Write the structure tokens for this entry.
Amino acid sequence: MRDMVSTDGALFSVEDLHARPLAEDAGGGEILRGVDLTVRPGEVHALMGPNGSGKSTLANVLLGNPGYEVTAGRVMLHGADITCWSPDARAKAGLFLGFQYPEEIPGVPVVQFLRQALGARRQAELSMLELRVSMMEWMKRLGMDPSFADRHLNEGFSGGEKKRNEILQMALLEPDMAVLDETDSGLDIDALKIVSRGIQEVRAERPQLGVLLITHYRRLLDHVAPDAVHILVDGRVVESGGPELAGILDAEGYEKWRA
């Protein structure tokens, strides 16, 4: 039996969340069937589950993807119910999603994209000089070639470069809550270490940042230690515990929670 979730002092919480995809070929059934979790300021939570458990659906629903309908429950940020908010309203309020498969946007340089996004987040225009100084500092930390600032967003980037670019966005946009959807997927050992170090450096700069790491594997958690681990199976959080839960999963798999 999973632990009951208290929302006292919560930065971000998901309460009995049910959701289904709207695409006609998706069958119309619920994928999320009652998800509960609570993240307090400064905490890192890991959400783990097998293929088809609803992990990426949850990430999309949390950020307001219009391709999904919430049929019950709610999503809370800073005590406000954001369940019906648009994706841009959530982002402006301080919610960030790092995508599993970052989109390529031809014709839009990284620096211009970030200037527009950061201006919307701060509700004030940012000088190009100030932005470039911050970008260069973070690109150095993330092992990114400075020339990437003027390249089109994710166009021609390797998998590792796309994921580092996601962490660059997280660093500069200064969210209050970050949902990182399988940030470790497609990364070799060296790229994983760089991305993990980037996450930790962002947390050091913003100690109240809450993080939800959605992942298949323990290897990311060896670099970014979670405060709590949640197991998602068939659209429900079936168990929550400490970091040791990831070790149990690594050794035993998900079979004992599938029943």
